[in-house]
């Protein structure tokens, strides 16, 4: 049953982004990438187009942060960085308040989104279906990064172990989310033989903050969430720490991957990359917000999709997730 939810969710997403493919002038190596992209250097992300006519140099750069929480909060949080990006590139920068992972991927695939942070679970779809090229991730000053998937319950719940949630309602966020769906799906199926519809009632909240609020208010018996989101919500007094309790914590996963559309002119792409690593975090809204995470997020560090998303691709493989675009 859980696999059916995943299949339906991916099918809906891929249907939403099923736009006409850009014709390739010649066949090329591409691995799991969509037919419109090439990967001649084997780094698992789309190369820049070989034909100069296919490169774009937009007058306005559109930036979007993953819809993990309320977009209105993050427009203000990202404003200082967007001002810096504008100075470094000589472009106007516009914030795009996306409401879903599917909308964010669709926007980049259609050429309406140029720079973005995609959440952990949607990075593979963004890379393979939308030509997203991630190159940065937030980390502490010492280089520590990542978050854990936790399964939380109301503090007053009698559930002490995952098995105690049998017959109850467990909230997930969206089918593309690593910590909000894919990692807990693999965990429930493989380690606890718990199947949606048979052993528990699945619910989909749409976002991590909705799931966390739902558990805090006892709307859900449990929820699979990214603990970095929960830490920031507690720091902002959105919920109290004593309203929820964790009964499971996973290994560490990479957090949001930041990158750009593969078809930007190389000179512009290089200025965008440089802007991430030259941004001064001291006194910024980014530091005020993401410094509350554990570990604190205090700088951008370089990453590669091949290396840092290997564990996520392994989870997708275990769940038979396909990156094919239709």
UniProtKB/TrEMBL annotation:
In terms of NCBIfam families, this protein maps to:
3A0109s03R (TIGR01098)
Upper lineage = Bacteria, Pseudomonadati, Pseudomonadota, Alphaproteobacteria, Acetobacterales
Question: From which residue to which does the signal peptide run?
Answer: 1-23
- BP term (GO), one: transmembrane transport
Cellular component annotations (GO), alphabetically ordered? ATP-binding cassette (ABC) transporter complex
| Key words, A-Z | Signal
What Gene3D superfamilies would the database entry show?
Answer: Periplasmic binding protein-like II
One Pfam family for this entry, by name? Phosphonate-bd
Kindly provide the name given to this protein in its UniProt entry: Phosphate/phosphite/phosphonate ABC transporter substrate-binding protein
Please give the family membership noted in the entry: Belongs to the phosphate/phosphite/phosphonate binding protein family.
């Amino acid at each position: 049953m859980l696999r059916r939810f995943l299949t339906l969710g991916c099918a809906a997403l891929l249907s939403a982004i099923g736009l006409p493919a850009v014709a390739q002038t010649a066949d090329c190596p591409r691995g799991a990438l969509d037919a419109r992209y090439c990967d001649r250097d084997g780094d698992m992300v789309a190369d820049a187009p070989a034909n100069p006519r296919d490169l774009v140099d937009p007058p306005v750069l559109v930036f979007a942060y993953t819809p993990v929480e309320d977009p209105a909060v993050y427009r203000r949080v990202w404003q200082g960085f967007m001002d810096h990006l504008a100075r470094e590139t000589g472009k106007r920068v516009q914030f795009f308040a996306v409401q879903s992972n599917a909308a964010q991927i669709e926007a980049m695939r259609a050429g309406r989104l140029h720079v973005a942070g995609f959440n952990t679970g949607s990075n593979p779809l963004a890379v393979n279906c939308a030509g997203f090229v991630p190159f940065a991730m937030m980390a502490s000053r010492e280089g520590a990064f990542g978050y854990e998937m936790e399964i939380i319950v109301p503090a007053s719940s009698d559930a002490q172990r995952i098995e105690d949630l049998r017959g109850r309602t467990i909230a997930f966020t969206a089918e593309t989310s690593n910590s909000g769906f894919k990692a807990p799906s693999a965990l429930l199926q493989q380690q606890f033989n718990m199947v949606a519809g048979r052993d528990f009632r699945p619910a989909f909240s749409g976002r991590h903050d909705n799931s966390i609020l739902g558990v805090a208010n006892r709307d859900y018996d449990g929820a699979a969430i990214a603990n970095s989101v929960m830490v920031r919500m507690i720091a902002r007094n959105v919920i109290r720490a004593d309203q929820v309790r964790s009964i499971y914590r996973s290994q560490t996963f990479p957090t949001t991957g930041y990158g750009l559309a593969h078809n930007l002119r190389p000179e512009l792409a290089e200025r965008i990359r440089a802007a991430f690593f030259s941004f001064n975090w001291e006194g910024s809204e980014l530091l005020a917000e993401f410094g509350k995470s554990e570990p604190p997020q205090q700088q951008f560090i370089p990453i590669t999709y091949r290396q840092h998303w290997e564990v996520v691709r392994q989870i997708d493989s275990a769940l038979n997730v396909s990156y094919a675009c239709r």
